[in-house]
């Protein structure tokens, strides 16, 4: 075999090896990108759903407490929806998260303040729930931005 044949063979082998290496890297990168995009997309959906659930829970609780619905047909449906939201919201939270734990505590406390004589405490608790939820959602949004920018998944709820 002549030196030029050896050089061609080595060149072909190197070209093939680089091609396979690029194929493997592109496959790995595409899978990673798709995974990060999926997680980020789900986190955005989680943020919006939690926002909707908290706002609906707060609105219904305040309306139910402030209006005289006791004994009216709508009362049962409203109370059932409030209870459903309390449980759905809890299931969306991270049991080890600081803001999440505060939200869980408030979800347990708020029903105690629905008597009209407790309206000031109810208003304060609902305000605390809104503020704590804002902090949680801001924290999660920052994670989404970092994931989208850097492609590095952070631990979190969603």
CATH architecture of the domain at 46-150: Up-down Bundle
Order of helices and strands: HHHH
Mean pLDDT, to the nearest integer, reads: 90
Approximate strand percentage: under 5%
* Measured distance between first and last alpha carbons: 63 Å
What summary fits the major beta sheet? none
* Structural classification: mainly alpha
- Give the overall silhouette: rod-shaped
**Low-confidence parts:** none
Rg is 27 Å
Helix residue percentage: over 70%
Tell me the number of helical segments per DSSP (H or I, 4 or more residues long).
4
Oligomer: single chain
Number of strands: 0
CATH class of the domain at 46-150: Mainly Alpha
What do we call the CATH topology of the domain at 46-150? Four Helix Bundle (Hemerythrin (Met), subunit A)
């Amino acid at each position: 075999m002549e030196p030029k044949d050896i050089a061609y063979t080595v060149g072909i082998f190197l070209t093939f090896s680089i091609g396979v290496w690029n194929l493997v890297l592109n496959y790995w990168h595409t899978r990673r990108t798709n995974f990060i995009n999926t997680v980020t997309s789900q986190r955005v959906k989680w943020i919006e759903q939690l926002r909707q659930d908290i706002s609906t829970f707060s609105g219904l609780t305040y309306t139910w407490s402030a209006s005289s619905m006791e004994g009216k047909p709508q009362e049962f449906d409203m109370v059932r929806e409030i209870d459903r939201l309390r449980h759905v919201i809890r299931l969306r939270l991270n049991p080890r998260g600081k803001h999440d734990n505060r939200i869980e505590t408030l979800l347990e406390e708020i029903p105690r303040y629905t008597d009209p004589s407790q309206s000031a405490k109810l208003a304060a608790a609902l305000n605390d729930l809104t503020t704590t939820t804002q902090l949680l959602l801001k924290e999660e949004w920052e994670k989404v931005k970092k994931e989208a920018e850097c492609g590095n998944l952070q631990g979190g709820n969603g």
